[in-house]
Amino acid sequence: MKKLITKKDFVLVIIVLVVSLAGLILVNSADKGKTATIKVDGEVVETLSLNEDTLVEFNGVVVTCENGEIYVKESTCTDKVCMRSGEISKSGEGIICAPNRVSIEIDGKNTDLPDAMTG
Amino acid sequence: MRNEKIKRITFTALMTAFAVVLSFVESLLPTAYFMPPGSKIGLSNIPVMFSASKLSAHETMLIVVAKSVFVFITRGATAFFMSLAGGFLSAVCMLIMLRKTTGFGFVGIGVLSAICHNIGQLAVSFFLVQSSAIIGYAPIMLITAVITGFLTGTVLRLTMPYFSRLFSFKEMGK
Fold this sequence. Notes:
Structural class of chain B: mainly alpha
Number of helices of chain A: 3
CATH class of chain B: Mainly Alpha
Number of domains of chain A: 2
CATH topology of the largest domain in chain A: mini-chromosome maintenance (MCM) complex, domain 2
Low-confidence stretches of chain B: none
Largest sheet of chain A: 4 strands, antiparallel
Radius of gyration of chain A: 18 Å
Distance between the termini of chain B: 16 Å
Number of strands of chain B: 0
Shape of chain A: elongated
CATH topology of chain B: Arp2/3 complex 21 kDa subunit ARPC3
Strand content of chain A: 25-35%
Mean pLDDT of chain B: 89
CATH class of the largest domain in chain A: Mainly Beta
Oligomer: heterodimer
Mean pLDDT of chain A: 87
Strand content of chain B: under 5%
Largest sheet of chain B: none
Shape of chain B: globular
Order of helices and strands of chain A: HEEEEEHEEH
Low-confidence stretches of chain A: 111-119
Strand order of the largest sheet of chain A: 2-1-7-6
Number of domains of chain B: 1
Helix content of chain A: 25-40%
Structural class of chain A: alpha+beta
Order of helices and strands of chain B: HHHHHH
């Protein structure tokens, strides 16, 4: 029978942890975003400004913006992953609700770039 | 020969029941605060892993499909597709890793199959929402995969001798 843990396992665990920690740090070190894009079925339905407190509803997902942070207040889905995802405010962060096919993304610098260049 | 076949069918049925029950029990447990929302330990992967090492590939896939159908009944269509895609990918990973000499132990197999499960789920959610927002879930899912994969791999290694003693039929693939 195979061993419980081998050297290769140890290396694998370390690599996975380093990659995921790097990913976490990358997301957390991002600047606060200014706008957020809400998509349904991959189509952009609304762009919110994070400076304004708002409450919108798409496909049974109630999206709330408060104090520069966005979270899902209510959803008709069964697993409520979107509601438990908490607040997002940094560029690149996102919340998805797969059963309702809704996604919320904080826009990053990359999306501002074309505007800055044309402007 | 006939006896052998009956043994295999019984064992497949038993592992299916095992996977379904564990999947249900798990849905009752609260998610730990440090884990991403909706994440599970993947206890039902243990009987699937055991099948992958003792039964044939198609018997293992049968268990995966049966488990997903149960998920469909209790948690709906989205959860079904996620369970099916994740289950299929992780079963393929287990089948390869448990049968070949790869140098990985049970912990490695558990972690890699948990990651494969996540990839399947993320692929389905990407197909549904068509947004790059899901990538943000990947790092925390990977960390969770390490923890849960370690747990399931360890439990499998510890229970394997008892399971094997209970069902001593010919090893597959030989």
